[in-house]
# Entry
Amino acid sequence: MKTQHRSAPRLAKRIEKLTGSVARDILSRTRDKDIISFAGGLPDASLWQDLKLPEVPPAAYQYGPSEGERSLRSILAARSQSLGLDASADTTLVTSGSQQGLDLAAKLILEPGSPIILEAPSYLAAIQVFKLFQAELHSLALDSEGICPQALDQLLEETQAPVIYLNPTFQNPSGTSYSLERRQQIAAVLDRHDTILLEDDPYRDIAYGAPPAPPIASFLKRCPWIYLTSVSKTLIPGLRLGSLTCSPELFDPLLKLKQAADLHSNRPAQFIASQMLADPQTNYKRVAHLCEHYRKKRDLMQNCLKSSFSEIAVWDIPSGGMFFWLNFKNDFDLSAALSDALARGVAFMPGAPFFAESKQAGCCMRINFSLVSPEKMEEGIRILADVVRGLQQPITCADSAL
Amino acid sequence: MKTQHRSAPRLAKRIEKLTGSVARDILSRTRDKDIISFAGGLPDASLWQDLKLPEVPPAAYQYGPSEGERSLRSILAARSQSLGLDASADTTLVTSGSQQGLDLAAKLILEPGSPIILEAPSYLAAIQVFKLFQAELHSLALDSEGICPQALDQLLEETQAPVIYLNPTFQNPSGTSYSLERRQQIAAVLDRHDTILLEDDPYRDIAYGAPPAPPIASFLKRCPWIYLTSVSKTLIPGLRLGSLTCSPELFDPLLKLKQAADLHSNRPAQFIASQMLADPQTNYKRVAHLCEHYRKKRDLMQNCLKSSFSEIAVWDIPSGGMFFWLNFKNDFDLSAALSDALARGVAFMPGAPFFAESKQAGCCMRINFSLVSPEKMEEGIRILADVVRGLQQPITCADSAL
# Structure
């Protein structure tokens, strides 16, 4: 026997703040099971069922530069420039997914106790990272156009936060897309304060109507900024590639942090992404096809929700991205709903983990529409409505009697 | 003009401790240039010039589990078990290279001011990570069998360090391989203290003689441990894959840290590695061929060094790994040597960055023998000797007169 009594290992204080991602926990509970999952933010695999990856040349087998392949950085920088960002290949870093961009930004800026401002709700894996770095999380409610610029101004004044994290385009989870005016107002507020804007923009290309307004970072005049993107949503998530573009003074420390984190990102993946993104027209067609595919799924989901949830919840129809965000009119036990739903083969994401401050959490649910097939979507929403109605009306037993 | 006067962005204190890797800086200065580089630790690309990667199935395009693919975890765990580690697939995490293992371990254990014990010299990218996490670095000199167990016992007593970082097998940079007895003695010392062993073992398979003794972690009875490996040295570094196996109580927080760092590692790469490592016999043959190839290079390098450096430096012939470690008998200006050598088309690694405490740094040089072709190796060492002799004997101009 090897194991004798061990005292608990001495770990860093930040580990007390360490939470797993609820989404990934649910994903791992549902993996390899025949479950209808509205829980994650996974692309529809049918989009790439016939896709063969380009052959990777042996030159990509060797160690490579920490900042990423020049070809890919140039493509990503050109895209940032086309959105109005003051970007170049020299200020663009290839990351191992936009999640790594969050880790690098947190390392760059956050001390234990650093105030950080974010949206309520916000992206749950970002909340997880900021908590891990022991930041003090302050959040501002979203309305249909974004956070309120005056409230932001006041909170910046009060907290002197060194950083604000926003996901202003087809936000995960709420689907909110900030109006042009609101973006400009927020940029103006940020320019009056000494605060870094961390703008996360993975869903921009998945637009079901007019193209979204330019990034907030494109309107800044003096505020430093970090702009994160991902290829996971529109290309291939398994590649784990994203990018970070930033104002020039932040690039060098971010590059060194990238070196220390994983030396550099997978090179065959960078080669594949460069090949697949190199021709703008091919790429445009591919993304247009993807958007049309997801738009149909969004419309079907809207129809399903309308017939099953319109009496008990309210929501906006998302104009981009991958999620519906339901606000329930009456409170009920969402963890019980999750257990019941999982038992009946359906997964969803409860809203609470998306709120940095629990006082702001309403009774909400995030429902993904990109992954599930049309047939399963109808069945899944019917089961989910059934589960929720059962919990909302504990006295009538009509459902279970059927 | 977008840019107006900006005040310096407010960054975390750890950024003051942020250094780039000297090796990667030299690499990036020498990239795309026709330079003879003894500086990095790059595999010989001729080993894979005819290698075609296995075709990746579309199943690997989707998001995957944070802990890594089961197939790869099982292969890696089996290898750890064969080395005597108390390991299983359940306590094995796929990482984005062993560098990420260092980042995750640092996040798990280090606070600002945490004492950490390491070897002098030690792996420079590990020193970089520990400094970034604001640890207090304490180092113990290596002799030909490793660090001294009594000195370790005393330093653990004095510092109460929560963690020790060791690279006991064909160490980078020194090439030292700890004897079996020393490993057992060190394990016994660690078991008497409440300290986590972080054991980095990327070079184990590159052995030119008898197989090295089992990992120190395999001799532990109660001390918690994290064991890092890499596929970069014997398979394909561009994949950026490594693994971490640990005592069970550390796995859950490390998995959550991995989630927060990059969700999961590149899946096509995991698929490729699983395919290539699946058959032990094929793998054994591939590694044996690689070792024979590198052994010849080591022998050639030894001959070159013997004729050019034996009067001015001492070194051990490495019994594994990728490096010679030269200790010069007289001090001279190594940065001047590096500049001169680069100007003449040769790169090497000065020794100083491998020492956590500068007081311990002698006049040393790390010379890699895996990358450079045999023809270039002779030429490169001749130039390097010429440069060093020029700096060591500034009065005699014999060399430049030839």
Observations:
- Residues 335 and 350 of chain A are 7 Å apart (CA to CA).
- The mean pLDDT of chain A is 92.
- Chain A is about 40% helix and 15% strand.
